Amino acid sequence: MFPRVLMASLRRSKSRIGVLVLAALLAGSLATALVSLSFGVEGKAGRQLRAYGANIVLTGAAETAQPGIGTLKFGSVAEPDYLDESRVTRALGAAGRGEIAGASPYLDGSVTVLSKQVSVAGVRFAQVKQVSPWWQISGAWAEDSASLAPSPTASSQGEVAAMIGTRIGRELKVGVGDVIEVRAGDRTERLQIVGLVETGAAEDLTLFLPLPVAQRLLNRPGLVSRVELSANTGRRGLDSIAAELEPAIPGSRAEVVGQIAQAESQVLHKVRLLVGLVALLVLVSAGLAVANTMTASVMERTKEIGLLKALGAGRRWVAGLFFGQAVIAGFVGAFGGYLLGAALAAIIGRLVFSAVIAPSLAAVPVTIVVTVGMSVLASLLPVRRALAVDPALTLRGE
Fold first, then answer.
1. Residue 125: pLDDT band with limits 50, 70, 90
2. How far is residue 11's CA from residue 5's CA, in Å, rounded to a whole number?
């Protein structure tokens, strides 16, 4: 009997049910759009911020000495320590859990170029491009050549392709295409400059070599000074990732790059706050629409409610009649709202963020819970009014 009465009630109140479905559709569509945008924008914001450089730096835990005579100390001197590149690579693969988007090792040192001391960094150029895409390059990127064998970016005489910072290049009067000789102790290498690096920072004063060549030149086989990491922060914070890396790589120290980490945290926090505030306003508005509609329905059907009670309908039966309408409207609104919200998220992502925002499966249960829950909660006061109807008074027309 209850399903028949419920379906008959839906058929007789098509306009009211239509309003309920529209309110649920609005709430469901915006819930879907906001959830999809939340995940999509956070991922895009994280990728854009990581494009400005590494957010975690791994270095060796340097040993500190205290030189002096007796009780007279002359300050502290830090002895640089190095990391084993192969051990770091294995540890990042095991401990990163897919959270390490890129890793760029560096071997820092000093060499003599044209009788001048120059900072040198051994790098793997392909990984530098991944972690630091913001570098401005004039000419071409060097290749990761591990020997003095000729390469497409080196001359036929076997020079190693290298890159140099713009400032030190001007000081040495070295540009793209020039061949220079560098010396470190009794070891020398011939380099052909294929690109100029400009960042506005220390890279402008640095000579960049393929990492194996720098390791040979500086007599540090298999070692690196530091590793710059680009870590994803979708599931947990950078501090947590850094704390996990240190014990995984004995003798290392993981430091979070403060400015990048702070900017990323602030942006993502503001995105979440904006999503929450808009969702709250939408839910309140849709809930008020549902409450007004249900209240009007109760007032119009007061005599029907009184008659049902007089015929023996209990409180649960009457409450179930109105809550059933709210649940059905919520599910219909959730289904249509998900489709509309996915389309809305895609349009906003394309026009505002210039990104493709794919429909999020996580939005499905969220949309159902939001629309159905909103419909039921907004119906509480109207249902209480329906339960308060006195059948004796109603049937007497009072």
1. very high
2. 10
